[in-house]
Specification:
Helices cover 83% and strands 0% of the residues. It is mainly alpha-helical. 2% of the residues are buried.
């Protein structure tokens, strides 16, 4: 997910997206542990997207506080 897409979402949408991505990340790492996935770079990209969303959420919390 690009930063511009993350900035355009509301806080509730970001929290929902974060939950979805975390569960998808767990599923991806488990499937990679069992048998190698075709593109292992997906794991890195998903981890970075999760970090971007979490950073944006914490930034918004600090701005409102």
């Amino acid at each position: 997910m690009k930063q511009s897409e993350i900035n355009s979402l509301s806080t509730a949408e970001l929290q929902a997206k974060l939950g979805e991505m975390k569960s998808a990340y767990q599923q991806l790492t488990m499937s990679h542990a069992i048998s190698p996935i075709q593109n292992p770079l997906q794991i890195r990209l998903m981890r970075r997207s999760i970090a971007r969303i979490a950073t944006e959420l914490s930034k918004r919390d600090l701005q409102t506080a």
